[in-house]
Amino acid sequence: MSTGVNQDRIGPRVARALAADLLDWYREQARDLPWRHSRDPYAIWVSEVMLQQTRVEVVTGRWQAFLDRFPDIESLAAADDSDVLAQWAGLGYYRRAKFLHRAATELADRGLRDLPRSAAELRLLPGFGAYTAGAVASIAFGERVTAVDGNVERVFARLLALPSDPSRGESRRIVGDSAAALLGRADPKDLNQALMELGATVCTPRSPRCDLCPWTARCRAHSRDAQADYPRRPARKAAVDVVSFVAIARDSAGRMLFRRRPDGGHNARLWELPSTALLPHEVAGEPSAELAVLAGELGRKWLVHGPLVSVRHSITHHRIRAVAHAVEDRAPGAAEDLAWLAPQEARERGLTAATAKLLAALPTLI
């Protein structure tokens, strides 16, 4: 069966037909999401950053709260980074919040109260990659520019049956050219959101709902009954097991000892329960011995008691088994980047996902 779609190029006639079918579908099927009612570029920017790697239903409950706390670029720029991270708590991937804050600060330092209106100018700000710049410029300002995220890559990888990873090399170029071909005379705000909506709700990674897709008749992967074979991706890294021993120390007021992670690297400046991170073969002794080493590194003296709870957590390709042990802390005060905090106060400052999961598993302690 001919789909009318070439593997490396979408012609003008087919592009117009694809765009028309997609926009008709979008007008009928688009989800009613709060940020789609906003014309405020700042609010749209915040929504786009939140939606990267966080589920829509989670963002729906958090977007307005963030705007209530930081209603504009000026208020976000004036905030302390710990306040921004605390407001971001639970959304994950905290680097996004840090870049959001840095970009607002840079704009404020330049005396600007509004975002630049073009994707090219937006790309000069921290945290604005090609997708974020394209999404904000097209949705907020109507610029005729593409916004290609993982959803859009997957849609075109299946439509065109691309033979290689759509995020790399020649296939990436084809995806970008295809998205640009569809823009034509269409409203870029609607076209880009429609493409992302199609990938998010119909052309999903698993079990795509091809019976609901406006492009089924033209989809090369569907014509081959090979939707599961696309997009082509490189082999994932093998999973690495990690053992983490976590110290649960409490003072007489019931506060717990937390450590703030250093600048740079994963989870920078977020708060966590003090812990080790070892490969299984690196565990040289009993948990008490490993925690004693950690205590020395932190300038503490701990009497280690038995395990309290164990949770599992994943970061990229690392599979972490975190085992929490009660400890008696016998060192006075707290060094820099250590603090005695009530769990709720720690949450407000911003926690790592692993620590949040551990606290949720310790209801009798908190």
Question: Can you describe what's shown?
Answer:
With 366 residues, the chain is α+β, with helices and mostly antiparallel strands. It is built from 15 helices and six strands.
Labels describing this entry:
366 residues; three-stranded antiparallel beta sheet; single chain; Nucleoside Triphosphate Pyrophosphohydrolase; 15 helices; alpha+beta; Endonuclease III, domain 1; 2 domains; three-stranded mixed beta sheet
Query: Structural class, from helix and strand content?
Result: alpha+beta
Mean pLDDT over the residues: 92
Radius of gyration: 24 Å
Helix content: 40-55%
- How are helices and strands ordered from N to C? HHHHHHHHHHHHEEEHEEEHH
Indicate the proportion of strand residues. Answer: 5-15%
Secondary structure tally: strands: 6
Give the CA-based shape. globular
Question: How would a crystallographer describe the biggest sheet?
Answer: 3 strands, mixed
CATH topology of the largest domain: Endonuclease III, domain 1
Domains, number = 2
The CATH architecture designation of the largest domain is Orthogonal Bundle
Number of helices, counting only DSSP H or I runs of 4 residues or more: 15
CATH superfamily membership of the largest domain, which one? Hypothetical protein, domain 2
Which CATH class of the largest domain? Mainly Alpha
C-alpha termini separation: 63 Å
Strand order of the largest sheet: 1-5-4
- Uncertain runs are none
